[in-house]
Write the structure tokens for this entry.
Amino acid sequence: QVQLVESGGGLVQAGGSLRLSCVASGRTSSIIAMAWFRPAPGKEREFVSRILLSGGSTIYADSVKGRFAISRDNAKNTVYLQMNSLKPGDTAVYYCATDIHRTVIGTTGERAYDYWGQGTQVTVSS
């Protein structure tokens, strides 16, 4: 089992920045990759970004590319999501998730992820 706790959400004006954190505990040695998701109207959670813990390869959704940056600190079992140039459309609950099976960087479907955090609310005002 892996437990995930997100933090760092809040209220920010458009154009501002936030940094989200996700701390993993439990069987952290089993984690291959971590990712961030957010809800999308009428569908599954929308993929935001993913990072491989070994090597640090990353991938981003087109909607956040160039504005968001994912990083990890393996020693702290923590993944970060630096969010810059925030827009009202980025308002959502952001969820952290882990993948303990797949080494392919392009794993973006939520069903591929095994453990999820409770989420942290990000609100961007116009």
Q: What stands out?
A: The CA atoms of residues 15 and 86 lie 5 Å apart. The first strand starts at residue 2 and ends at 7. DSSP finds no helices and eleven strands in the chain.
